[in-house]
Amino acid sequence: MSKRNRLQVIHDILKVISNHNNSIKPTPLLRYSNLSSQSFSEYYKELLEKELIKEAKDKKGRKYITLTDKGFVYLEKYKTIIGFIEDFNL
Amino acid sequence: MPRPEMFASNMGIEILYSVIIISVCLIIYFSTKEIYKLTSHKGVKYFRNTFLFFAIAYSFRFLARPFAFMLQLFETIKISPLLSRTVILIVFVYASTMALFYLIYSILWKKLDKTILSKNYLLHLAALILAIIAVFVKPELFLLFQLVAIIFTSVIVYLDYNKSKEKKIPYPLYIIYALLIIFWIFNILSTIIPNFFRTTQTLLYLISTVLFLIIFYKVITKIKK
Question: Considering its fold, how many domains does chain B have in total?
Fold first, then answer.
């Protein structure tokens, strides 16, 4: 299996959140994303900074991660993005 | 001194050509904004910047033309238009060099060191120095630089293509890029040295427009999918 590129990893993380009814705790997200803790932290920080995901807390104060509107747009446009980058060899 | 009707006809072609190219470049730039905002992909950034700088270069090229005509029409006003034309030419050559730099970057950025990529200001500085050399010292030096850059990029792209045929690299696109740069150089020559391609000017414009429209069509069809 070839190494996933950055855009693919971001897609996979967002897809995991989406597949869990747009609400997942950080630990299972780390497990499902198939990344090392360090890589996951870096991606997690990047996704928060880019406002593709956001953190929320339930009544008991537990942290959940959800997709933002921008995150949903990323998932929706992922194939177009990859097609564009491959076609122009960017 | 050109006849007024010839001046009007030439200006008409110039306006049409410039409006088409500037519009195409700006549409490419703005239509890829969302992809860049979502991904922050460096290749997309350099690709977009290429067309932004092409749009700037063509805008200043468009401004440089009337000055050349005006100088021939009204021989009495010389100092101020000459000064303005020099400034316009410097910005034009600077922007066109930046467009070329970004086009090369958009193809080669994965092979370049991160520290090189972070020193973007050096590109701007080099482009500005080249523009000053082209306008004040020797236009031939600038032309030589552009040719070396094209040959260098072509060799790298060809080697890269040979190595990864299975990846289905869109090879015809590189041919379009190469032609785009070649015709762009003709454009620069005809702007720095007015009447350089007087007889073949319309053909030059037509081929350049077709090349830009091919890229425009590819971008729009990809984005609309």
Answer: 1
Give the residue numbers in B contacting A (CB under 8 Å), as ranges. 32, 34-35, 38-41, 43-44, 46-47, 106-107, 168-170, 173, 218-219, 222-223, 225
CATH of the domain at B172: 1.20.1070
Dist. CA B139–CA B127, nearest whole Å: 14
Residue A2's pLDDT is: 61
Residue B74 belongs to what domain range? 4-224
Residue recorded with tokens 């030096």: B141
- What digits encode the pLDDT tens for the residues B13-47? 888 989 999 999 999 999 999 999 999 999 999 99
* Residues in chain B with pLDDT values less than 50: 77, 79
A48 to chain B nearest CA, in Å? 12
